[in-house]
Amino acid sequence: MVSSCISHHLRAGTRPQRFSHHLSLPRNNLRDVSILSSYVHLQKLELPYNRIKDLSCVSHMPFLVILDTAHNELSEFFGFQPPRNLKEVNFSHNCMTKMKDLSDYSTLTKLNLDYNSFSEISGLENCCRLTHLSLAHNKISRISGLNNLSLKHLCLRGNQLETTEGLESLNHLLDLDLSLNRITSISGLQNQQLLGSINLENNMISEIQEFKKVDNLFLLRDLNLLGNLVQEQPDYRLSVIFLLQHLTVLDKDQVTAEEKVSSVNKYQPPLEVVAARDHMTNLMYQMMQPQVLYESTLPDADFPYAMLVLAGPQGCGKRELTYKLCEEFSEHFSSGVCHTTRGPYFGEEDGHDYHYVTEEDFQNMILMGKFVQTMQYGGHSYGLSRDTIEDAAREGLACCVHMELEGVLSLKHSYFEPRYILLLPTEVGRYRERLKDRGLYTPAQIDAAVARIELYANTNRQQPGFFDNVIPCDDFEEAYQKLRQVVREYLLPEEEGEQDLDKRQSSEETSTASGRLPLEEPPSALSRSGSASRQAPPLNLSHLYYRNYSCKILAELRPQQTTVERASLRRRERLVREALVGRTPAVCSRLFRSLDESCSAMSVPSSAFAGPPDASGQECTSETLKVSSRQSCDRPGSSTDQVTVAITPCSDRRPGSTNKPLLPPIPTGRKTPAVLSPAASPSPNPAAHEG
Fewer Cβ neighbours under 10 Å: the N or C end of the chain? Predict the structure, then answer.
């Protein structure tokens, strides 16, 4: 039998010799193999599925490299003299109960001891070349005896393990199989930096937080948790994927890119995602409310409602700079007070520093569509309400607010286009001492605030144009002087632009009244954008980076226009501007000009909202005033001195009506006077008060 199953090969040399190399005798019901003692040149011996109990013949095979005696009746562990080159041994499915010292088998690289009765791992300390060890389905209850080994693949499947402790010294481990055990904690795997695959199928792991212990294993790609209690947790798969972002296979299923993105958006969404969600929430609930027009949504023909936002990390002084700026530039700015769910710090006042509300009230305000911008910071909610902006807009002032980066991202999704100024500490030590001196923050809060400096700096560095200006805020006075200079630079072009707009409007009115078009006037930005869209390459002018430079870019790209084209564009621009600012057409202005001249001698307070009832009992309104005055002026012998009427603005408001009177927008930087005399006030504008 041996002669028929053995394979030979010729060894080259001066005298070619024939040496035995490989012998395989599986499933032959062999009991005694002592005859193999004479086969001294065997290098590979395979005797699986027999009834062998003695392997002493192996002691006479000095060249043996691979030995496979699986599925036999061996009870003695390595019962033979060690061959000098033995590398791979398979003793699985035998009757061995105790391991002995294998110091003499230092060349071993792969050892399979599955399905025996070992209760302890021992005798492997000097097997420095051992890379594969399998002890599946034994009676091992504790991992030990593996120190200083170079194991790369370890299988302890089907034992009685309850913890993974004892693997700390295996620094070369690549593949670990601990399935079919009683493991509840994986606390012994933190240092396995090369580990790429872990099989924990059918164990007793019940907490998702256990996997935080291995989130530093950046080479881990395959994790199997089938049959564990942790799978019953809600959103189990997304939770594990979020904790272990480098996984490619979880529970034998491929981890997709969509799952990784969904897990991050669910448990630690980027600031941009949070801001977009908050904006969608606020916009949805706002649209569910009765829709009205606000002063802040009635922009000028060329510029939206003006706002100024000071952004910066906690305690950088943005709130103090906001108050001081609004105090000095009180003719232009009004401080906007936000709402928050946190309690007031020492010295803070409700309504001055913040509007302090409960979490329930804050959520109710969200459901009522009260907020333009909301954010979460430090475990508390913050929000900028529309009423805050409206209070400033009614006075003809720009709203100046301060907020964190999360609030800036949320506000950028709205239709407002504020100027954003970043206040950034440059001296970290000085900033840290300032936070300590306040005595309001814990050391953990101070560390978190200091860490956010780099977040602000990276945002400004990676997104050009995100902030309109950056001001160091290490020294309060120096920061305010720079802020003051920046604000002055912002205000000067606006004031000049308003003057030019007033001159252009007056020139257009004069030209229209005389029946001529101002053809010699240079085309405006609106006309330039209309023609450039046909010739020049398309530009995304809504992007923040182009917002401040769009006019210059379009001016450079503007092609030559004909006289007829310029006249047409200017005429359309004038009509759009008049519609936006609520002005009446020129024909109506000429129609009521004679009425204004006839009534210019009267002194009537502007606060009179209703005149005395006439003979029919009806209230005298501005419409009836115009008709009666024109009739009285047309009668022979009538004089303007005899006209005595009460001027009242037109209003559709009735008792119980919810309609809000709409007023024309107030130019930025001008306060509304309390009382205007008819001589100083502009001509009556009925269309501006229509609901």
Answer: N
